[in-house]
Amino acid sequence: MRYIGNKTRLLHFIRRVLRARAIAPGRALDPFSGTASVARALKRWKFSVEASDNMQYGYVFAHAYVEVISPPSFAGLHDVTGRAGMRAALRFLNALPPEPGFIHDHYTPAGARGAEHGRMYFTPENAARIDAIRVQIEEWLKGGLISRDEHITLLAALIEASDRVANTTGVYAAFVKSWQPNARRTLLMRAAPRHVTGNGCHARRTDALDAVTSAGEFDLLYLDPPYNARQYAGYYHIPEIIARGWFDGDVATRGKTGLIDDEDMRSDWSSSRRAEAAFEKLVESARCRHIMMSYNAEGLIPEKTIERVLKSFGRRETYYRHRHGYRRYRSDADSSTRRYRGDVVDEYLYCVSR
Ligand SMILES: C[S@@+](CC[C@H](N)C(=O)[O-])C[C@H]1O[C@@H](n2cnc3c(N)ncnc32)[C@H](O)[C@@H]1O
Fold it and tell me: How many CB atoms lie within 10 A of CB 336?
């Protein structure tokens, strides 16, 4: 999914650094797991991973792509979809008639609340498809036809499918005021990415500090915190709503972009006043052998602080900043007409060992 800080394109760099530092597989924590791209790769590289994020959609990705031990069979859907398996479930969901509901009402110009603010996040038809699918997935879970793993796997597929047709330039902090080509396409759920086998991996929705302090002793702490003042809660509120559902009473949305109450999702790491203290406290609390932190050269925490804090955690001579230059795309809209205007940014991995 299009996501600020998604490390999919940097996995080879992370792997290269793990090898260069002779960090062997063991128990790893990824407490800012986002799309779970790194946690999933660590699982593939034979780590047992605890992946967490303070957003519910982050938990959904971590559970679907990291915690799940084997590809769900969807055996309970046999009588509904005609055969077992994820593909049959997706075919059924993709064919559901659109049914206007919460997303249609709040995030399209055809819904009462959406119209009030001129919100154009999805075409009315795609929004009504999201609504119909989200409700169906919930009913299957409540009716005992799918397991928790199956439910989470379908939710992850729905969040990713919705993102592909969202009328945004990559984040939900704003919508585009005319329909983009990707938004006009019909929403289509796709099969989950190839399953990665591995045991002993867990997902949680929790604050990074809680994830680290409650973990006890472990081998590798991989940190990939937000590096600027953009709060993920405000940039990805719609994936968050889809992840949580809207079944226990109405959810209030406000303003032009339809934000939800984000009190419990705001992050100290996106605050220029609080990021340094949050970093220091997290590192002090960690009981692990290695720390690797992805951070951007333009980040809120000054490099001097990173160096001081990491050196006080581990052996000074093991501290090292690994650098990787890569092309950043300013315009990441998923459209056939998109123009890439790239420039090179430096991405760093700061490492230290005990
Ligand atoms: C740079 S992104 C991580 C990207 C991830 N490595 C990937 O490849 O998709 C930072 C993540 O930290 C999460 N986050 C921000 N503050 C947090 C906190 N205090 N505790 C846990 N997660 C937090 C955000 O929701 C976001 O998903």
Answer: 6
Whole-number CA gyration radius for the chain: 21
Mean pLDDT, to the nearest integer, of 280-299? Answer: 95
Contacts of 316 (CB under 8 A, 6+ apart): none
pLDDT at 326 over 90: no
Side chain identity at residue 292, one-letter code: M
- Is the CB of 347 within 6 Å of ligand 1? no
Exposure letters 68-104 (e unless 16+ CB within 10 A, then b): beebbebebbeebbeebbbebbbebbeeeebebbbbb
Closest C-alpha residue for ligand 1 atom 16: 267
33 Cα–ligand 1 center, Å: 6
Query: b/e map of 144-163 (b: 16 or more CB within 10 Å)?
Result: ebbbebbbbbbbbbbbbbbb
pLDDT digits (tens, 9 = 90+) for 69-125: 999 999 999 999 998 899 999 999 999 999 999 999 999 999 999 999 999 999 999
pTM greater than 0.85: yes
Report how far residue 319's alpha carbon sits from residue 21's, in angstroms, rounded to the nearest whole number.
11
Beta carbons of 286 and 312 less than 8 angstroms apart: no
**How far is the C-alpha of 41 from the C-alpha of 158, rounded, in Å?**
22
